[in-house]
Design goal:
By secondary structure, this protein is an alpha+beta fold. It contains 7 helices and 4 strands; from the N terminus they run ααααααββαββ. It has a 4-stranded antiparallel beta sheet, covered by helices on one side. Helix 5 packs across helix 7.
């Protein structure tokens, strides 16, 4: 069954709520900008709040300006970034996976990584190339952030029998492929 078919079959409830008229006007403006219905917008916003913002707050995630983040990651050496990523991949990322999904497998890792990228307004693309998962990222988070992500991802992937290969970096993006340990 396709995603669209699942969405059509999804059970819904009719709910009446009262909202501030200024907020209502802003919501209607957003609907016009995004060319979506009010129902779609509200469902998206509620889903994001309940299934992302509340979870990340409970996990202790913080928000900061991109420029601050970029300066912090670029002030640390590439080797130190990789060292931090190794320890946080084994702890923070793993704890986040357990908390959000209740388990750790390749699909949960890729889904959480995608959600992280999307929440940070980072361009994320996943595709299958020659039977391998390939992830392509476009970002403006500094020269060391890609090394952090690849090392952190590889740390948690290794624990479930996968690894990263063919990692490539340039000024605004990076990519990598994921394979089972023992494959090439």
């Amino acid at each position: 069954m396709t995603f669209q078919e699942k969405q059509i079959l999804k059970k819904t409830d009719n709910v009446s709520i009262r909202i501030d008229s200024d907020l209502s006007s802003k919501l209607h403006e957003k609907c016009l900008e995004q060319k979506i219905s009010l129902n779609t917008l509200i469902n998206h916003l509620l889903d994001k709040q309940v299934n992302w913002h509340e979870l990340t707050a409970e996990l202790g995630w913080i928000s900061m300006f991109r420029s601050t983040f970029r300066e912090l990651t670029d002030a640390v050496s590439k080797d130190e970034i990789k060292k931090i990523a190794q320890s946080t991949g084994s702890s923070d990322f793993k704890n986040s996976l357990n908390y959000v999904y209740g388990y750790i497998d390749l699909d949960s890792i890729l889904d959480l990584f995608k959600k992280i990228c999307l929440s940070m307004n980072i361009q994320y693309r996943a595709m299958e190339v020659n039977g391998k998962n390939k992830i392509i990222i476009q970002h403006d988070l500094g020269k060391n952030w890609p090394y952090f992500i690849v090392k952190q991802m590889n740390s948690i992937l290794n624990e479930i029998g996968y690894r990263i290969i063919n990692d490539e970096y340039n000024k605004q993006g990076f990519s990598f492929e994921i394979i089972k340990v023992g494959e090439s």
